[in-house]
Design goal:
Structural class: alpha/beta
Protein name: F-box domain-containing protein
Organism: Caenorhabditis tropicalis
Pfam families: BTB, F-box, FTH, HTH_48
GO biological process, one term: innate immune response
Distance between the termini: 56 Å
Shape: extended
Strand content: 15-25%
Radius of gyration: 45 Å
Number of strands: 36
Length: 1318
């Protein structure tokens, strides 16, 4: 602290001025910070001196100190943090007191957040203060541009930069000669998908080119540089290229790069290759001209010999002469002028000799004919790869199980480009009377491709076969009526409606075919001065049949209703789900089903379950939407109770509240949004209690870490590759799968049940060892991936998928026909944030995963974020439809927000005027679009906006500022558009509030309101309207009500009819009630005090005067006691007046339909009424009873027969009981007894002594009439007098026990204490 003050002495002066002004505003001085800076006499004198100086003159001085150095504000910020002010309150207060808006918001926020974190150090850490190791780590994570700038800071940073690993792994050079000056485009970037480290710069002129080379040389000189790609493109051979090669040849080490790409010609490219480190270079891409002599020289280099792939994108002349140089590569792509049969035979020989060679592609115009190649190479007939879409022939390599694929592309390209080219071939086969199957196979074999449009082929084959040899395509009107009907039936609703308007004939067809919809929504609402009808018609979610339209005005309403009438007039319209339920409910018997799977939602699924015969159903799979109330209803059905397994494929909100309904199942699968440690422990407890439970799978959106789960469960996480544990031999395994030489013991029945592949495998003859346990080899599968896949269906504790292997597992599940494993992986991918959204869509589309598709499209939050067109086009129609549906939903949400915004503007018209003034300094162009982005296009028309804006710009700015300032002061809601605008612009809260205060010229801003709206908008909620209490969900209202004090609840009951029901059901916020009735003057007074034990400040009292108010009080009492959740620790009833009031009180108590829960009861009631009150209390809850009324012995007899009396722990009787000795035995149940009696005899003392056992700890008897002290001591056999703490006592030792009795005899009575009760 002292170091900061030493360097910033003015900060003390600014702080003292700030504290002085706070004091004058009624705030207390911050003693904590005075202690931090070390308050002394000098500071006190400075403070006193400042109080007598002219305030405004001093304010100007302080303002100047702050403007010159923002550090002077730090003590003021720290003071506000210690005072627990919010950031907005602090910045406004400082700006107001010092009188300046010139505050650096970023600096202010930094120090406010730093001090709030508990770090009160006022000194700024500099980069040079950090340890060298940390500096190195920071530098290594900087982008290239930042690293280059850092080198210029100091010689030390230059040394650090030259040692750390550069953040770039790709370098691209590209020259341009179109401009007057030679230009070099230099790009340096990082290849990681999640990296934004990209730097690009254009250099022109000789000096700048030298600067570019110097910068790159610094990068290339770093020995830790590891490049993925190094690329140089010089559009024309130039001196620049030669200079570059000379520079990199001067390095004292070789450059490490995996890929090298350039358009250098022969010799220059050879020099470039020589600068690369042999072994690191994997692929060449040559775009320059090469002669065979250049390739001969390249082939002598180690870089060439150790590379894996080579690409020549320019024709290599006389390629045959250097073909032998390519025999060590794994992949070759080359363009040649011509190729001979000998060359092709040599390439074939290369594949036989080189196991590494995977592909050899030659693009060549001059080659032997296809038939010559097939004959010379000994190739098979034509095959077609459907997945990749190409045709090929095979050559079996002698002495090996491998084969060679040979693709020759000629005629097939003509067919793929235009299917019409096949028509004459089809007609020829029809004339030759070839069957359709033979025709298509013959054509595919001849052309060398199966990429044939089958529908088009079938159409033309059938047409030619009918005798119509016309090769031209027919139009719609030429089609037969049944064909048109089939086409119309497949159209969406909008297209059908348009088709009805073409002709009367088409209208008749449309009205007869089945409608392509199953959902109809009509919404009617009033907007502005017009009524509007929204008509939305759509097909099931799997289709793209969707139509939405708005109608306004009476004429358009008629159009809409005519359309609806047309729709309902169609006899083929039906609702599938309801139709199904009608059929099932009409049956006179229950259906016997073992496995039930349905996508019905809540109530419909419950109805379906009721139609199934109880006891037959074992597995239930729910794919619809469910709430807790539905599960509660399901749990009451016998079908549910007797089922063994249950799956919920969609998320269940707050699932663990209904976990108890799942305790009888053997297997459970559910999806939840989030998973906590408590939830996991609940499932663990369930698995311990239920011996039948074998598997409980939970798919989640978020969960604790694996380490936290392991610690909570007391288990270690299973390792990935422990096949011995997962697939060890046991009495349940009866087969072995051999993968990569490893043996996995499995159960045939389990795998056969889950997979048709294994079912067929186990029935086949593919067995290695038939003598003992059969062994089956599994080829083309990685061991670890295969174990992870099988564990999903074969093991109780499967290996969970990861983001890295999820796609592989999906592919393998598809390969081995394991749909159950596919579903496991699908649900994992749904919940994995590590898998990109576009990747999820691709996987859902490729493997037809409906749940993943729905989840993936829901991750899109804005229309503009939806996939790009180039990605969109590659998806199937089903996926495209899902994406379109999401776009429509997002647009609907946007429209909804627009309507909400319009409502706010309607209620706060001045908000737009305030926003316009706030944006006044900006260009007019684009402002209307900016406003529409905030409030929607319905908020204000463009004409109205321009009119208001032009009017505002013509007015005097200062006079208009005063008007705007008044609008803001009168209603802070007028600031909301300005706040939202700043949030959209990503301004900080301090920057926003200061900017608004500066522009409007006022600091009278409600900082709490400002902070609320700023945080709300920042969270993504742009709704400008304040939520009211009635807008909240019922459970939230209940939670709020439960936390209110009693007066607030009573007031809330009077707000509406619905609220009393809520108030009367939630748990009361009190646990003590005191009712006291007395006479004050001529009026009867009832005083009620409520209290909360845990929070003493929560107490409330009220007095009622007169008969009318007493009725109000008793009505309130009835409301309180009627709440079944009332639990009182203490209840006191004190009536000092007539017994009629007691009767009214007891009438209320006796009218309740439940017992009251009270721990301590105190009442001034005589015998009978007190017994009635005691009967109204729940037995077992009552522990302490205090009787303040008069009792006879017979009353005690009646009390002793009540459970409430027997289960209580303590009793206190304040009025003397006549003939007390007769009922003394009734007090044996208690731990403590306090009573007042008229007299006590020696026999009574003996009896009390005999009552003491393990339970009774204390008996205190108050009386004036008792035997003399000496007689009591002698009769009870007590010891001499002893003293402890503040009283005298004597002891009685129980015979044959280690216990004793303390007896204290005073002028007030006799006290008995059991052992250790003191």
């Amino acid at each position: 602290m002292s170091e900061f003050i030493k360097n910033n002495p003015s900060a003390i002066e600014v702080f003292i001025f700030y504290e002085k002004e706070k004091k004058s505003n009624g705030e207390k001085l911050n003693k904590k910070i005075w202690n931090l800076i070390g308050k002394d006499d000098e500071l006190t004198r400075l403070f006193d001196k400042m109080t007598i100086e002219d305030e405004e003159v001093k304010r100007k001085e302080i303002r100047q100190l702050v403007a010159e150095n923002q550090d002077n504000l730090r003590l003021c910020i720290l003071s506000d943090v210690i005072d627990k002010k919010s950031m907005s309150q602090s910045v406004l207060n400082i700006a107001k007191i010092i009188g300046t808006f010139e505050i650096d918001c970023q600096d202010f926020e930094f120090w406010f957040n730093r001090f709030s974190s508990g770090n009160h150090d006022l000194d700024q850490k500099t980069f040079s203060d950090l340890p060298l190791l940390i500096v190195g780590n920071i530098v290594e994570n900087l982008d290239f541009r930042a690293q280059m700038r850092l080198r210029e800071v100091s010689h030390g940073f230059g040394n650090i930069m030259d040692q750390v690993k550069p953040s770039a792994d790709r370098i691209y050079f590209n020259t341009d000669y179109t401009s007057p000056q030679n230009t070099l485009n230099l790009s340096i970037c990082n290849s990681k998908a999640d990296s934004d480290r990209f730097w690009q710069r254009i250099y022109d002129g000789e000096d700048n080119l030298k600067e570019a080379f110097d910068g790159v040389m610094i990068l290339l000189s770093n020995p830790r540089l590891r490049l993925e790609c190094f690329q140089w493109f010089d559009k024309q051979p130039s001196e620049m290229s030669v200079q570059f090669i000379d520079r990199i040849k001067s390095l004292n080490h070789k450059i490490e790069s995996k890929n090298l790409e350039s358009n250098f010609n022969g010799d220059l490219m050879i020099d470039f290759v020589k600068t690369m480190k042999p072994g690191s270079l994997e692929q060449f891409v040559f775009h320059g001209k090469f002669e065979p002599i250049h390739i001969d020289r390249l082939a002598q280099l180690d870089q060439w010999k150790k590379a894996k792939a080579v690409i020549f994108n320019v024709i290599v002349y006389d390629f045959s002469r250097c073909l032998h140089h390519f025999q060590h590569f794994e992949a070759v792509f080359v363009k040649a002028e011509s190729i001979s049969m000998e060359d092709l035979l040599f390439v074939k020989k290369l594949f036989i000799q080189n196991d590494k060679l995977k592909s050899f592609a030659i693009v060549v115009p001059n080659k032997p004919t296809e038939s010559e190649i097939v004959e010379a190479l000994g190739l098979s007939e034509l095959y077609y790869n459907e997945e990749e879409g190409y045709s090929f022939r095979l050559y079996d390599i002698p002495g090996s199980n491998d084969y060679l694929e040979v693709c020759i592309e000629e005629i097939e390209q003509l067919v793929v480009t235009n299917q019409d080219n096949l028509r004459i071939c089809i007609l020829s086969d029809v004339i030759d009377k070839e069957p359709m199957i033979e025709s298509v196979l013959s054509i595919a074999k001849m052309i060398g491709t199966y990429d044939i449009d089958w529908q088009d082929f079938e159409f033309w084959f059938n047409r030619f076969s009918s005798g119509n040899w016309n090769l031209d395509q027919k139009t719609f009107s030429d089609l037969p009526i049944e064909v048109i009907e089939n086409i119309v039936e497949k159209l969406d609703f909008g297209s059908k409606m348009r088709l009805r308007e073409v002709s009367s004939g088409l209208r008749n067809i449309v009205d007869q075919v089945r409608p392509s919809i199953d959902q109809l929504y009509c919404g009617f609402y009033h907007k502005d001065s017009q009524n509007t009808l929204t008509l939305k018609i759509r097909q099931d979610p799997e289709s793209d049949g969707y139509c939405k339209r708005f109608y306004d005005r009476e004429d358009n309403f008629k159009i809409a209703f005519d359309g609806i009438k047309t729709l309902f007039s169609n006899p083929r319209l039906r609702e599938v789900n309801e139709k199904l339920m009608e059929i099932l409910n009409s049956l006179n018997h229950k259906i016997e089903i073992v496995h039930l799977e349905a996508s019905l939602d809540g109530d419909l699924m419950i109805d379906l379950l009721k139609s199934v015969k109880s006891g037959t159903l074992e597995h239930i799979e729910f794919q619809g939407e469910y709430e807790l109330i539905h599960i509660d209803r399901l749990a009451q059905l016998d079908q549910w109770k007797k089922a063994k397994t249950v799956y919920f494929r969609r998320e269940i909100f707050d699932f663990f509240r209904c976990l108890h309904h799942f305790q009888h199942f053997e297997e459970v699968l559910v999806a939840v949004k989030s998973l906590s440690i408590n939830d996991i422990l609940l499932v663990k407890k369930l698995s311990i209690q239920n011996e039948k439970l074998k598997k409980f799978l939970i798919f989640y959106g978020s969960k604790p870490s694996v380490l936290e789960i392991g610690e909570a469960l007391g288990k270690t996480t299973p390792k990935m590759s422990v096949s011995e544990e997962l697939f060890a031999k046991s009495d349940k395994t009866d087969a072995i799968l051999v993968v990569d030489g490893k043996k996995l013991h499995v159960n045939k029945a389990v795998l056969s049940c889950h997979s048709d592949y294994f079912d067929a495998l186990f029935d086949s003859d593919t067995v290695i060892n038939e003598d003992s346990i059969p062994e089956y080899p599994i080829q083309y599968a990685d061991l670890n991936d295969f174990i992870a896949l099988l564990s999903l269906v074969h093991h109780r504790n499967p290996i969970l998928p990861t983001a890295k292997n999820a796609e592989i597992l999906l592919e393998m599940a598809d390969q081995f026909l394991l749909p159950s494993a596919t579903r496991h992986v699908e649900l994992f991918i749904c919940s994995s944030p590590a898998i990109a959204q576009i990747k999820k869509l691709e996987l859902a589309d490729k493997y037809n995963l409906d749940i993943l598709l729905n989840r993936a499209v829901l991750e899109y939050k804005r229309v503009k974020d939806v996939v790009a067109m180039r990605q969109f086009l590659k998806f199937s129609d089903k996926t495209k439809a899902a994406i379109f549906d999401r776009m429509i939903d997002l647009q609907s949400e946007k429209d909804k927000i627009s309507v909400q915004m319009s409502k706010f503007i309607k209620n706060h018209p001045s908000a737009i005027e305030v926003w316009m003034f706030y944006q006044r300094g900006k260009e007019k162009d684009g402002l209307y679009e900016r406003l529409c982005k905030i409030i929607g296009e319905n908020g204000i028309s463009e004409e109205e906006f321009k009119k208001q804006f032009d009017k505002m710009t013509m007015e005097d700015k200062e006079s208009h500022r005063k008007e705007i300032k008044q609008l803001v002061v009168n209603n802070q809601a007028n600031l909301r558009l300005c706040i939202l605008s700043d949030v959209i612009d990503k301004k900080s809260i301090a920057e926003s509030i200061l900017n608004i205060a500066r522009i409007f010229g006022t600091l009278d801003i409600d900082s709490q309101d400002f902070e609320f709206w700023f945080n709300r908008f920042s969270s993504g909620d742009w709704n400008l309207d304040q939520k009211t209490f009635s807008d909240l969900p019922l459970f939230i209202v209940s939670n709020i009500t439960e936390k209110l004090n009693l007066p607030s609840r009573m007031r809330l009951r009077r707000v509406s009819r619905g609220l009393p029901n809520i108030v009367d059901q939630v748990k009361l916020s009190i646990d003590q009630l005191i009712y006291e009735i007395e006479q004050k003057g001529s009026q009867i007074t009832l005083k009620i005090i409520t209290h909360k034990f845990e929070t003493p400040v929560e107490s409330w009292g009220r007095c009622y005067y007169g008969e009318d108010e007493l009725k109000i009080a008793f009505d309130g009492m009835k409301t309180l006691f009627s709440n079944p959740r009332l639990q009182l620790k203490s209840f006191h009833w004190k009536n000092h007046l007539s017994s009629e009031i007691d009767v009214q009180f007891l009438d209320i108590i006796n009218s309740l339909n439940h017992k009251i829960e009270i721990v301590e009861l105190s009442a001034k009631l005589n015998g009978g009424p007190m017994i009635d009150l005691l009967k109204a209390v729940k037995p077992g809850t009552l522990e302490v009873i205090s009787f303040q009324g008069k009792f006879e012995s017979k009353d005690i007899d009646l009390l002793a027969g009540l459970d409430q009396w027997k289960k209580a722990k303590s009793v206190c009787i304040f009025e003397p009981i006549p003939d007390f000795s007769r009922c003394l035995h009734h007090f044996r149940y208690f731990e403590r007894v306090d009573m007042v009696v008229e007299s006590i005899s020696m026999n009574d003392n003996f009896f009390v002594k005999s009552l003491f056992c393990d339970k009774l700890k204390c008996v205190r008897i108050y009386t004036d009439n008792k035997p003399p002290k000496s007689e009591i001591v002698k009769a009870l056999g007590l010891t001499k007098l002893r003293f402890k703490d503040i009283y005298f006592y004597r002891l009685y030792d129980f015979p044959g026990a280690n216990e004793y009795l303390d007896v204290s005899i005073t002028i007030f009575g006799i006290d008995f204490y059991g052992d250790n009760s003191l």
